[in-house]
Amino acid sequence: MIDRKWINLLLATAMFNLGFVIWFSFAPFTGEIADEYGLSVAQLGLVSSAAVIAVPLGRIVIGPLTDKFGAPVTAGITLVIVGIFSIISAFAPNYEIFTISRVIASLAGITFVIGIQHVAQWFEEENLGLAEGIFAGVGNAGAGLGAYFTLPRIFGDGYSDALFASNWRAAFFYTGVIAIVLGIIYFVVGDAAKTEERRQAAKQGVSLQQWIYIATRHGAVVLSAAYIMTFGLEVAMNGWLGTYYREGFGQGDLVIAATFAATFSIAAGLLRPLGGYISDVMARNEKDILPWFEGRYREQWTFATMAFVVLALFGMTAAGLTGNIYIAVAAGFLVGVGCAFSEGAIFAQVPAMFPNNSGSVAGIVGGIGTVGGSVYPLLFAAPFLPNLHMGYAVVALTMIPILALTAWVFQPEIAENATEDGWFVSENPAATSSAANATSDD
């Protein structure tokens, strides 16, 4: 008989993968959408930002709700809502209705937080990095293998069927239908936690005061900032690279441009389990690779991968300036590798640092991290830049303060108390409540 933890991991991974397919399903069809609605390149950058606009707040809200009600409930409801609005966008008669429906359908991006919480409820600490990496890595591949690679081939140029003569409308409709079906299956088949003790521990940690306390801890803040420059970057590039390869190099073929863009997404997705696994191995083997953070093994790996992302972005600008699209695609692949390793490392730390509040912290980190997906496309397409290649170097410069904050928090004496020490709020509501209950029991 199959262990229930693998069934629940499979459900979470399928949900997240489909969520990313829907979230980024507009990206390979930006050319057709732009033609129909008469959009400029700068407006396409705004479209990329609009596609993630609802996700940061949605992730922050869905995290504690998943701790409270369990993943099967929040996953089922989310997938059904996303599916309905994806279908509505397929029939949108004008750009205004299309944009509004896609913003709501973009809530598919919050499935990440639901899955992180669900997987954390089923796997032990020593294997969290690998389990969360498998979930997030295969799920993230929905942007590359699903949205960029598969959809343009199923719904290519000239596609038509009994319902649609437009390829992008068909893609939005059928993925919406699948989302509704999967939501029902998740609600019926999924189990919230491995044990009732874990389930109750997650439920007990949900309150506004506790959320504020957690959100202001050094650990939560630095991991959120780190996720802005890694996952936020991934979201931004998933939505932008198709346009970049088309406009920056004159590559007008839909399938070829989407395939080039998919190389980044596939690297950022499929290599993420390796990033989490290496974090697990370093923690188990107590391996120091950066002596400045001696003894903070997961932190060392996380910082090293973040630094690689910054360097890779500068490399992407240099590659683009050569005018050779193949060099640019290779450089984009390396950026994807850096994102994958860093994201796997970050979400190996989240449930390990906050085991009883994994949903809330995943929501905070995942929600704030997604902000990069809204901001970075505006820099990629900024009209003040001399060309489309310089945006990557500009984004890399904005990441240096985050690296500095990370270096400060990851110092052993700071990192040791990163889940208790923080800013603005000093008193832990959970500890105060426990003390009050103990007094009343006496």
TrEMBL record:
One of the record's GO molecular function terms: nitrate transmembrane transporter activity
Keywords recorded for this protein, A-Z: Membrane, Nitrate assimilation, Transmembrane, Transmembrane helix
PROSITE patterns found in the cross-reference section: MFS
Record localization: Membrane
Example of a GO cellular component annotation carried by this entry: membrane
GO terms under biological process: nitrate assimilation
Record bears the keyword Membrane: yes
Positions of the Major facilitator superfamily (MFS) profile domain: 7-415
InterPro entries tied to this protein: MFS, MFS_dom, MFS_trans_sf, NO3_transporter
Membrane-spanning ranges: 7-29, 41-62, 69-91, 97-116, 128-151, 171-190, 211-234, 254-274, 301-319, 325-348, 360-384, 390-410
Recorded topology in the membrane: Multi-pass membrane protein
Domain of life (superkingdom): Archaea
Membership in a protein family: Belongs to the major facilitator superfamily. Nitrate/nitrite porter (TC 2.A.1.8) family.
PANTHER family hit by this protein: HIGH-AFFINITY NITRATE TRANSPORTER 2.3 (PTHR23515)
Protein's name according to its UniProt entry: MFS transporter, NNP family, nitrate/nitrite transporter
